[in-house]
């Protein structure tokens, strides 16, 4: 049976954008707690966004080399379903919070993908992002999808530079069952564009149906 493609819209900073993403059919929304991000949210703002969501839409908190203490503090204030680690966090660090987690890997070589899937075997998913020197993510850049091994097994998520224009080709080439997008559906940093979100989600569903 054809699986339903999983779609996460990341970098949400406003309740209205979260509501819109959910209405268009996003499975999850992401909230960036990284202090240097243009899409950073503070815990009270994040809690307001989460409380605006309808049931059955997942909430993902994104962290980059954050202290365990600060993550614990945020978890006490914001009901996050999943943690997403985008820095140099070890598997031991990621699993200490006893929550499902995603580990991002910035792909430069085919080996990067296999190693991350092996090292973070208990992750809910390994998120494949572009490698841009000096940046941890959210760059709007794609990586070379041809680096992905054929019939890649495991729970992996395609990310990095996806947008309504390239998502059809991305799914046809990679066969991804889960995708994550941020800058490709924005009107400005941290402000989502409803048309781009709707277009992206519709094209995902259409393309995945054809696989
Ligand atoms: O969005 C950010 O500012 C960010 C900062 C540091 C690490 C990750 C970040 N964003 C995440 O990166 C991926 C890919 O984003 P894009 O679609 O290429 O813009 C996604 O999970 C973002 O939420």
TrEMBL record:
Domain of life: Bacteria
Gene Ontology molecular function: phosphoribosylanthranilate isomerase activity
Pathway info: Amino-acid biosynthesis; L-tryptophan biosynthesis; L-tryptophan from chorismate: step 3/5
Domain N-(5'phosphoribosyl) anthranilate isomerase (PRAI): 7-201
rRNA-binding among keywords: no
UniProt entry keywords in alphabetical sequence: Amino-acid biosynthesis, Aromatic amino acid biosynthesis, Isomerase, Tryptophan biosynthesis
Top EC group: isomerase
Single GO BP term: L-tryptophan biosynthetic process
Pfam family, one: PRAI
Keyword Chloroplast among UniProt keywords: no
Catalytic activity: N-(5-phospho-beta-D-ribosyl)anthranilate = 1-(2-carboxyphenylamino)-1-deoxy-D-ribulose 5-phosphate
Enzyme Commission designation: 5.3.1.24
HAMAP family from the UniProt entry: PRAI (MF_00135)
PANTHER family noted in UniProt: N-(5'-PHOSPHORIBOSYL)ANTHRANILATE ISOMERASE
Record family assignment: Belongs to the TrpF family.
Protein name listed in UniProt: N-(5'-phosphoribosyl)anthranilate isomerase
Native organism: Conchiformibius kuhniae
Lineage, top ranks: Bacteria, Pseudomonadati, Pseudomonadota, Betaproteobacteria, Neisseriales
């Amino acid at each position: 049976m054809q699986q339903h493609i999983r779609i996460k819209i990341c970098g949400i900073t406003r309740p209205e954008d979260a509501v819109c993403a959910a209405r268009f059919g996003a499975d999850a929304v992401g909230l960036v707690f990284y202090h240097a991000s243009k899409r950073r949210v503070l815990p009270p703002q994040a809690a307001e966004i989460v409380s605006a969501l309808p049931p059955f839409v997942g909430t993902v908190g994104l962290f980059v080399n954050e202290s365990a203490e600060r993550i614990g503090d945020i978890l006490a204030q914001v009901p996050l379903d999943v943690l997403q680690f985008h820095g140099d966090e070890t598997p031991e660090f990621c699993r200490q919070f006893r929550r499902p987690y995603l580990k991002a890997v910035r792909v430069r070589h085919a080996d990067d993908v296999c190693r991350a899937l092996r090292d973070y075997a208990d992750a809910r998913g390994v998120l494949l992002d572009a490698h841009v020197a000096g940046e941890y993510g959210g760059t709007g850049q794609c990586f070379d999808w041809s680096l992905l091994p054929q019939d890649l097994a495991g729970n992996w998520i395609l990310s990095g530079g996806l947008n309504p224009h390239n998502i059809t080709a991305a799914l046809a080439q990679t066969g991804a069952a889960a995708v994550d997008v941020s800058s490709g559906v924005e009107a400005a940093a941290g402000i989502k564009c409803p048309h781009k979100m709707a277009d992206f989600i519709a094209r995902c569903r259409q393309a995945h149906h054809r696989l």
